[in-house]
Structures are given as C-alpha cells and as structure tokens.
Amino acid sequence: MDDLRETPLTGLHKALGAKMTGFAGYEMPLQYGLGVMGEHLHTRDNAGLFDVSHMGQVLIRHEAGYGGAAQSMERLVPVNLLGLGEKRQRYGFFTNDAGGIHDDLMLTNRGDHLLVVVNAACKADDIALMREGLPECEVTEVTDRALIALQGPKAVDALAPIAAGCEIMKFLDTGIFTSDYGELWVSRSGYTGEDGYEISVPAAQAEPLARALLLHEAVEPVGLGARDSLRLEAGLCLYGQDIDEHTTPVEAGLSWAIQKARRRGGEREGGFPGADVILDQLENGVARCRVGLRPEGRAPMRAGTQIFGSETGGEAVGQVTSGAYGPSIEAPMSMGYVAASHASAGTTLYGEVRGKRLPVAVAEMPFTPANFKR
Amino acid sequence: MKYTEEHEWLDQDGDIVTVGITSHAAEQLGDIVFVELPEVGAEVTKDDEIVVIESVKAASDILAPLDGEIVEVNEVLADTPSKINEDPEGDGWFFKIKPSDTSPMDDYMDEAAYKDFIA
Predict the structure, then answer these.
(1) CATH number, domain at A333?
(2) pLDDT tens sequence across B25-56
(3) Residue A130 falls within a domain, yes or no?
(4) Which value does ipTM take for this structure?
C-alpha cells in the first residue's frame, strides 16, 4: 500500500485487525472482525464508528462574515445558503456548466463563516474550484483534524457522555463542544440513513476519542464495505458511481436539495453553473431518472448491469449504477438510471445478469426507512 | 481430501466426488448472499464456470475441477447461502460430480500442500 495516504486513525484500524484497502488515495479499513454484514446490522441496531477523515473539511471566510461567504458560495452551488440558519447544515452539490454534478457536499453555517465537507476523491479539485471561483473569500483546508462518523440508534448514548448537550441536537444541527478530546465540531448527520453524528476532532485526539467511543458497549468499528451497503439501503448516492459530471441533480432525483429561492421565480433564481439546464429540467422534466430497483430473485444486480423493458429483444432502457445485497432488507437492491417512461414505482424491468434477463421492480427509496432525529 | 488452486476441496467416495470451497476461501469472500448451481445431469468439462457465488463484496465463479456429470447439487444453498460461511467444508458443499476421468485428482494438492499454498 505504498503511495496511499494515512489518516490519524490508520494505526487504530490496523491495531483492531481491519482488512485495509486503497480508497480515493487513502489506506482505509474495508472491514473488521464482524465482517461487512455484521457491521451493517450492528450499525442499524446499535452504533457503528466510521473513519471518514479522508473527506475534506474546508472553511470559507469572507470579510462580511457568514452572509458574505454564503452569497459567494451560492455562485457555485444551487443551494439557498443565505437562508441557512446559524449552526444548521444542508446537503448540496457543485454543478458544472452542462448541469452535471461536480461533487456533492455538506455545508454548515458556522455563524461567521461557512464550513463544507467534500468527498475525498474530489477534495483537491473542489478546493481549487472554490479558490478560483471565490476570489473574495479565504478558502482554508483543515488539515489538522480527523473526522469520525458515529451512526446508529445508540450513537447518542455513546457520544453524550463525551459531548454533553449533543443529545438535544436535531437532524442537521451542528455545534462546537469542548471535551476531554479538545474542541469537537459535531453535526447530527451522516450517510447511513440512521440517526448519528459526524465529529471533527483534532488529529492528535482522534485515536483517544475513537477508543473512548469504542469502549461503549453499543459501538463497533465499521469499514467501507458496510458503509457502502448502508448508504445504498438508505437510497443515498455515491459520488463517481451514482452521480457524476454527466448526471444532473434533476436526473439524480436530488431536486429536493435545490430550494425555492434558487429556482425560477425565486429570490435568487439561478446564478450557479448549469442553471439554464437545471432550471429547465425542473420545469419540463428529464428523459431519464435515478430509481431504486429490487430484483425479484436473489441474484444481486451490480453496477453496470444493463436494464431492459422486456424479457427478450429491444434496446436497454437503463443501467445499474450501484448494486449489492441489503443485509437489513435481506434481499438484493440496486439503484440506477432508467428512461423516464419506465421509471414509475412498481414497473417490472429486466436486468441482464450473466446473459440472462432477470425480473427487477422499480422501487421507492430508501429501501430501509430513515431513522433521523427530526 | 484434495484441494485445487481455485480453493475448492474435493472429497472422493467411490466414483462420486463432492466439491465445495475451503474455509480459507469462504473467509476471503466474506458473507455469501447468492449461489447459482449447475443443473443435475449436466455434463461439464474441467475449468467450465459452473457455479456463481456472490458475496457482500463481489461475484466469483467456481470452476468444474473435473470432466464429468453433475449428479447432485446442494439445493439448500439457494435459500440459505450463509451455510457456505457457516460450514464450508461440510453442510456448505456445492455439488457432486461423477467424473469421466479422475486422473486430474492426482495433480491436486493434499491438505499439507494446500496449507502451504495459502500460507
């Protein structure tokens, strides 16, 4: 694993016996002793601890404070940032001129500045994009902190003794907590469909904090394998797989993340890359959409599986972008893009697996109900 | 018991050979969630891809270790593929084959050689 970067928790993963793998240029844990299925189920029932330190944490400051940073950033993302309350977090994406998605990210109003968290694989690109696109802002990558996700219904029980007050936070609230592990930047969010937190911690305190959380009986370490099946069951997109430069937010079913203020007739309509394409699609619809897919048999339909409208003949009407076995639903599940004409829930389509067309139903997502603390 | 480099075990009893995957292979694959077995009566040729297994991580093919006829498959696996992880070298067997030629058996590894192979 030469040339791979480490996170402040790499030593801990190895000490815990993780099977390591390369991901987005980092050496990351794929799984620990419980295995992918065990870790997945444990997270849904108890709490899982994930190292997400490979993701980028970036501060955006403007001399006019949060309002200035938000107004500037609205040039890059189709999100209502001026309307984001203090200490609140929101999902969004950078768009390109064709209306495609350059990356997805989380944005937080931190009172006098903006904090964003971006994907590991896009980090360098995103920072360059922001430095170039926001010349009036100071864009600072946070390089001296780790990021830990603690996910699952018992995450609150493990974190509350360490960050007193985190238990009263609601979904997408954020806060800064003084703790025995230094200053923690906590958000009640994550990417598993479960209640939980993401905790930014000074790098030197990351391992002691992770060890303290793991001491709680409900908490087990969870690797990238289960992170993938958890997010897929929750109907959440993986950038680079389910969404990319060639998929628009409307095709991807992410229109909900484009608030009214940025749509046609809104107070700050458009003004982001690809606005003409995206706003037009919001009004007039799209030719293809991201849908959930539930194979009728047991065979998983993995990324790349071609989807057809009939059992024999005809051209493909779509393709799977993510597919796996869902440990909580005890069945295979996929998501992918299909022609809008074939995208209604309940439609039977056929996925070609090893030369055979197998029935698969278009299904609502998430596959497992979300369990957020609203 | 004989072992292939594809991590299959072969247990010969008279003119029938039972085939499965080793504990080592099952552990490497992770939780197995789907198995597609050959049809009983199928005539197979050595190195044909005759079983598909999918774990939480990926799909893999299992090759026919010998030429011959499939005389029985472990139907239980279709509904409970987890049997393979629970007992790969027992209840998690895949199929029984009646080889037309058992000579490749001589080339496969014995237990000690397989242990060295995976070490």
Answers:
(1) 2.40.30.110
(2) 999 999 999 999 999 999 999 999 999 999 98
(3) no
(4) 0.82
